TrEMBL record, chains A, B, C:
Aspartate/ornithine carbamoyltransferase carbamoyl-P binding domain mapped to chain residues: 13-155
Coiled-coil spans in chain: none
Binding of L-aspartate, residues: 93, 176, 231
EC top class named in words: transferase
Protein name, entry field: Aspartate carbamoyltransferase
Length: 315, 315, 315
């Protein structure tokens, strides 16, 4: 994407939302991520870009998977990582998010990675600190590194993103993953279909760049190049959005029969952790179309790239 | 404070209580802390004084804030830090504190930072181990690094400690902070007034070096150079010490009207986490008199100094 | 044990069970462990054999003690350690152990240390990953590094293992320690007696290499060179295996009277944490026959040796 006479510069202080990024930003992050991924595959450690830096992992929601991914990424770059999983009990102590932000800021970290249950909570915090802030998931709003790693996994396995037909299926309404990934894929020229039960399909998804929404999965999967199944977030649902797990699987589960409707070289994705037998058949999760573990691998690489671009700026 | 012909040497194995320190000890720690604070402000890492050393953070009480401060301090000096937050569930396993001490000692750490709910628990443990022990809070007894960081914050912002009028207000009875800070400030020549509800004012505070105690906050704040508000430790109180939060705020909350009675350049402190609207008005916490985030910053610096002086000895 | 013309090579990918090791393997690990133990005693750090490597500590059961021992061992060798204590709440999210394994593997660690409540769970996981897997306890099955550290402690204090009479007393049925330690000691030529209440003595212990089982502790301790008391695992027992703690102590507690029946230079061991007054008298735990803290010390050394032999292979 380099344009003669134009010199690109990644110029963001924080990573709060895919909405803040341009197509060039995303491609720059993906290119850098690929370098990190190749280094890891070759058994090489990258340069210690974050040597003598401190990264704080502030997680108000439990997520061993995402927290570890950030921790491993930061350490590979030579950073000190301070894990701060905040149990419900501590929150009960009654300190506000702003006070937590100001307290952490006073400890002079170079980056804070934060997951919070309130949509917008991470942005709020970012205004009160001097260091780089990376959104690791805020409520049902954004999870930008997930959007980036999904896009990278697709680009690597399909060779491009432009023009691909991508179907995302599941609880779209509560999914920060669907939002972030749709935004990123749309920016890079994919055609995204969002599919789920009518009760779990929000309106306004055209603002994310979605081409269409549907509650007919058989229809949505027709000819798709990429199928991304979302986790059925049972803990997110307060009311009775769904009749039964069995009913859900019948209508929205990814089975081999259904997969046959997609393109013959379609790939299958899932952000994990999976509910096998609920949203995806085990044979598909473990089959040769699945790139699910590659998503995890790219997750570490993307976080290395983002940490380098943001925390590394302070040097 | 260097006296011709006299060569000072910091000569302590542990940091258990401010009571064990002389004025020269405190001034030595504060001087060293300032060097660390300046290094951090300038974006410099200090020498790795604790390289190849292991610091264990043994916290029997939940305190993300203090634990992180010690962790960041130890890592800045190059130490390995092993976090050991001991959940209630583990304590139920029934191992005695002495056995825990002996077990940890057998793993050959260079320093153990410990917080325990029993007053005196840290001292007990220190007798059973070979390495340096730092008290990060034991029951209602001591929290010496808090006393040091409070003193340092005052010395930096007011230019001196000697002769200052300091008012500490809140739940004095249950506060290890009040005790440690009063002792440190008194040693350095400040005049400390302790203020709180009659039910939360212990007797014998003259042994801490307090000049007086009172339950009249309006009176106590008159002409004060420093006002330190304590957190209302609701979880500490077993009985009915207080009528209501509203009543408490009316009598002992720091409001703008009350602050006007203090010296015109008085500073406001709080060890955190704050209960905004209960012991302190939000506008003051965020106002230009507040040095609350500077306390957090000095906290890391003081812990660097203490770790260097104690753990560094084993080299 | 070097045989002319024979060149020994430690050739294992994982450490899952003592059953997978030969006598030469064990002696090789113990020899290397001794070197690490001596280095620590001399205040020396070993070579950073695991520099730029990542060790994941995946603990599905709470064990501050074992987790810290592995963490300290790995850090001494220069590794990055990512702690993953998996709370019950996370497991409820419903991811299978296999998915967890594949997720972690995709993050490219060099070793995974795992404790899991299911016997065989660690082996299952090891089949799905590329890196070294170390069993830190799986159900009632194996805890191989405990077997090795027990054997090393005996070899150091008694000068040999061959021909020693070792009595292990307690809840043999639920003890992965008893199984691993018996296997290791038998391989090295000790004669192991297993003792406990009839309800807690499994059949088939001859397959572990035990010489005999008995529910008469007075008889079992007669002339023993080593007495190892097991922790009464109250949380392990679902039913009514035992009449009362008092009754247990009378029949199976280690008292000074009972210890007098053992060899005059007998040593006393316990894997910890101890229930003082239930399985062992306090005076013995703290007495000069006790090598309990030395077990902890050797634990770190053995884990350094095992991590070096396994994770170090990838270089």
């Amino acid at each position: 994407m380099s344009i003669p006479g134009y010199s690109y510069k990644f110029d963001h202080k924080h990573l709060l939302s895919i909405e803040d990024l341009s197509r060039l930003d995303i491609e720059h992050i993906l290119d850098l991520s690929e370098e990190f991924a190749e280094a890891t595959r070759a058994g090489r450690r990258p340069e210690p870009h974050l040597k003598d830096m401190t990264v704080i992992n502030l997680f108000f929601e439990n997520s061993t998977r995402t927290m570890s991914s950030f921790e491993i990424a930061a350490r590979r770059l030579g950073a000190d990582v301070v894990a701060m999983p905040i149990a419900q009990s501590s929150v009960k102590k009654g300190e506000t998010l702003i006070d937590t932000a100001m307290t952490l800021n006073a400890m002079s970290p170079d980056a804070i990675v934060i997951r919070h249950s309130a949509s917008g909570g991470v942005k709020l915090l970012s205004r009160k600190v001097d260091c780089a802030v990376i959104n690791a998931g805020d409520g049902t709003h954004q999870h930008p590194t997930q959007g980036l790693l999904d896009t990278l996994t697709i680009r690597r396995t399909k060779g491009r993103v432009e023009g691909l037909k991508v179907t995302i299926c599941g609880d779209i309404l509560h999914s920060r993953v669907a939002r972030s990934t749709t935004l990123a894929l749309h920016l890079l020229g994919a055609e995204v279909t969002l599919c789920g039960p009518a009760t779990l399909l929000p309106t306004g998804t055209e603002h994310w760049g979605a081409a269409r929404t549907t509650h007919n999965f058989d229809d949505a999967i027709e000819g798709a190049d990429v199928i991304m199944m979302l986790r059925l977030q049972m803990e997110r649902m307060n009311g009775a959005y769904l009749p039964s797990q069995r009913e859900y699987f019948r209508n929205f589960g990814l089975t081999r029969e259904r997969l046959a409707r997609a393109a013959s070289d379609a790939i299958v994705m899932h952000p994990g952790p999976m509910n096998r037998g609920i949203e995806i058949e085990s044979a598909i999760a473990d089959g040769d179309r699945s790139v699910i573990t590659q998503q995890v691998e790219m997750g570490v690489a993307v976080r290395e790239a983002v940490l380098k671009l943001l925390a590394g700026r302070r040097v």
